[in-house]
Specification:
- It is built from one helix and five strands; from the N terminus they run E-E-E-E-E-H.
- By secondary structure, the chain is mainly β.
- A hairpin with a 4-residue loop joins strand 4 (52-59) and strand 5 (64-71).
- The model has no long low-confidence stretch (mean pLDDT 85).
Length: 100
């Protein structure tokens, strides 16, 4: 388990055969910062993801850098905890469709 900024990520060591490096760290699982449950992905074709970030920095045509502050949150905590809290504080959440 490693703290990546304020984000809790659980890593596992994976053996990579036939390369110069024999092991590498890959994310094993990500847990919700509120309920501590593992954030599951239903299938490779399903899209259910919570993204809450604050991004600061500078972006120029040739380069850019900055910081991202974020949180890992499961869809249930977003719907049952964060969304009602935001609405109770006067936020009007918007809903938009996406397609590709």
């Amino acid at each position: 388990m490693v703290l990546d900024g304020d984000i809790m990520k659980h890593y596992k060591t994976v053996v990579v055969p036939a390369t110069e490096e024999t092991t590498e760290q890959k994310i094993d699982k990500i847990t919700c910062d509120l309920c501590k449950k593992v954030i599951e992905k239903d299938s490779k074709f399903s899209e259910e993801k919570v993204t809450i970030q604050y991004k600061t920095g500078n972006s120029f045509p040739e380069c850019g850098s900055g910081k991202i502050t974020g949180v890992d949150m499961c869809p249930s905590c977003f719907e049952e905890k964060l969304k009602p809290w935001l609405e109770s504080h006067g936020c009007e959440l918007y809903i938009s469709d996406w397609d590709w």
